[in-house]
């Protein structure tokens, strides 16, 4: 049995693709939204800290803090704010000296940072330090906007509190995502099986066809699977035709093979039951028996030839031969039969013709055509063979003055074992395999055969075969 890999299942692949798309979309959306949310929180926090810083800066001016930095009210306010923000507050006077630091690290030191200088020029600065997650603001300390800048207030505030909130939201998002994932699995499974269902149905329907005799065509409920179903129905019809012809062939073969044997049996039995048989009768019967054996032999030879022909062009032994010479040989060989039937054999070679042919099969095909012309003829009668060629094809025109073939029979003469008009087939020997062999041989040579016939006047077969054999083409049967 053929092994089918894990991912060979169309349904499974579909399921995985839908899952992948669903999960990716959800992830991208989650990150985008969470990112947005955080940015918004940070900017809100920055605004809030800035606002506070301005209020404090005003208060510092009001309390004259820069000149007298020992106000306990202010100090405690700064401490409280510093704790609230989990950050640091620094006040710098006009000499760039730190006069207050809630961390007590830089007190009394000179601090000339870029933001401090810009602040002295009257600017308000805010900045978010991504790595430490701190919002940093610097505001000028001045009586009013536009007035002289007396100092700078620096506040840094932790954003951990807001991220704690955001993380909480992130956790909720994960739970939601899990729920979404479960839903997604369900939806993906449903979609995958809905899409695959038509194919399942078709394969079940095809699988349920067990014999060629089951004539009901497989039907498809969907447009997409209709083509598969149509192809299958066509194939089934062709197989049925093949199967029918095979059965017919087998029954014909058995019948044809049995007929001579039945005759031999009757002849032998009738000799056996008679007591004293004169030698002449014996001889007579023996001749009949011998004729029947010849006939049996003929049928078997024809059958074997037919089987060989089925193998196709691969078995063709093509050789470039002079067709004129070959035709003379064939006509010569058929001379005695023609004379016996009082039939004139006329061969007309219009020009020298050389062609690529398999001598044995070509001879068989042509012999049968001429033989038919002789057999199914009037007495006296004639058979005329005209050999001609152009630059591509040779043409053999074999016509006779014979009995002709009724139009209704013309379509059947190439069938195996077909013998026309039973009245004359009794007295004229033949198996009915001749023309089917002839046609096969000609098709193997990539040639064609055509027939026209008028009852009572005669028949005309025209055979065309390419002068050069083309091997690459696919075999025609
Ligand atoms: N030239 C012809 N004139 C009249 N009828 C013909 C001619 N050729 C073929 N037929 C008809 O076609 C039938 C089939 O021919 P085919 O050559 O296949 O078989 P056969 O001659 O009967 O037997 P076989 O050739 O196998 O010995 C013949 O029985 C005959 O009725
Ligand atoms: Mg024949």
What are the SSEs and their pairings?
Blueprint lengths: L9 H53 L9 H13 L3 E6 L4 E4 L12 H7 L4 E5 L4 E9 L6 E10 L1 H48 L15 H51 L5 H32 L8 E4 H18 L2 E7 L4 E4 L1 H17 L5 E9 L3 E8 L6 H4 L11 H6 L6 H11 L3 E7 L3 E9 L11
Parallel strand pairs: 7-9
Antiparallel strand pairs: 1-2, 1-5, 3-4, 4-5, 6-8, 9-10, 10-12, 11-12
What key phrases describe this protein's structure?
rod-shaped; 5-stranded mixed beta sheet; Beta-Lactamase; 11 helices; 5-stranded antiparallel beta sheet; 17% strand; Heat Shock Protein 90; binds adenosine-5'-triphosphate; 477 residues; alpha+beta; 3 domains; Helix Hairpins; binds magnesium ion
Protein described:
- The protein is an alpha+beta fold and 477 residues long.
- It folds into three domains: 6-166, 2-Layer Sandwich (Beta-Lactamase), CATH 3.30.450.20; 223-307, Helix Hairpins, CATH 1.10.287.130; 311-466, Histidine kinase-like ATPase, C-terminal domain (Heat Shock Protein 90, 2-Layer Sandwich).
- Helices cover 55% and strands 17% of the residues.
- The protein has eleven helices and twelve strands.
- The strands form three sheets. Strands 2-1-5-4-3 form a five-stranded antiparallel β-sheet, with helices on both faces.
- A hairpin with a 4-residue loop joins strand 3 (125-129) and strand 4.
- The two termini are 32 Å apart.
- The mean pLDDT is 87.
- The site of magnesium ion has 5 residues, from helix 8.
- Adenosine-5'-triphosphate (ATP) binds next to helix 8 and helix 11.
């Amino acid at each position: 049995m053929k092994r089918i890999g894990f991912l060979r299942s169309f349904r499974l692949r579909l399921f995985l693709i839908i899952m992948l798309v669903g999960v990716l979309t959800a992830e991208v959306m989650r990150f985008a939204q969470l990112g947005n949310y955080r940015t918004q929180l940070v900017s809100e926090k920055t605004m809030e800290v800035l606002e506070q810083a301005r209020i404090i800066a005003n208060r510092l001016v009001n309390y004259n803090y820069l000149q007298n930095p020992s106000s306990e009210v202010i100090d405690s306010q700064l401490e409280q704010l510093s704790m609230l923000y989990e950050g640091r507050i620094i006040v710098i006077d006009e000499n760039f000296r730190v006069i207050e630091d809630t961390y007590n690290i830089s007190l009394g030191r000179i601090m000339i940072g870029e933001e401090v200088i810009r602040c002295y020029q009257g600017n308000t600065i805010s900045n978010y330090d991504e790595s430490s997650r701190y919002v940093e603001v610097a505001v000028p300390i001045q009586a009013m906007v536009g007035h002289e800048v007396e100092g700078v207030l620096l506040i840094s505030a932790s954003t951990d509190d807001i991220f704690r909130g955001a993380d909480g939201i992130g956790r909720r998002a994960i739970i939601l995502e899990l729920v979404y994932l479960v839903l997604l699995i369900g939806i993906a499974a449903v979609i995958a099986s809905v899409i695959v269902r038509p194919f399942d149905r078709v394969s079940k329907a095809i699988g349920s066809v067990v014999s060629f005799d089951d004539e009901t065509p497989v039907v498809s409920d969907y447009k997409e699977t209709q083509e598969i179903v149509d192809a299958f129905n066509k194939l089934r019809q062709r197989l049925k035709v093949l199967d029918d012809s095979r059965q017919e062939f087998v029954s014909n073969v058995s019948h044809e093979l049995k007929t001579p044997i039945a005759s031999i049996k009757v002849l032998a039995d009738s000799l056996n039951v008679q007591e004293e048989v004169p030698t002449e009768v014996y001889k007579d019967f023996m001749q009949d028996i011998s004729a029947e054996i010849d006939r049996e032999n003929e049928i078997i030879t024809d059958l074997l030839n037919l089987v060989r022909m089925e193998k196709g062009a691969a078995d063709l032994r093509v050789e470039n031969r002079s067709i004129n010479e070959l035709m003379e040989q064939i006509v010569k060989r058929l001379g005695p039969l023609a004379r016996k039937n009082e039939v004139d054999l006329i061969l007309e070679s219009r020009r020298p013709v050389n062609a690529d042919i398999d001598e044995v099969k070509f001879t068989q095909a042509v012999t049968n055509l001429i033989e038919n012309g002789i057999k199914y003829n009037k007495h006296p009668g004639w058979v005329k063979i005209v050999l001609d060629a152009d630059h591509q094809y040779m043409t053999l025109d074999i016509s006779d003055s014979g009995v002709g073939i009724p139009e209704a029979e013309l379509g059947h003469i190439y069938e195996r074992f077909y013998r026309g008009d039973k009245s004359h087939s009794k007295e004229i020997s033949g198996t009915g395999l001749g023309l089917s062999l002839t046609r096969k041989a000609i098709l193997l040579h990539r040639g064609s055969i055509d027939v026209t016939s008028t009852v009572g006047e005669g028949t005309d077969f025209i055979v065309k075969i390419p002068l050069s054999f083309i091997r690459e083409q696919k075999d025609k049967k």
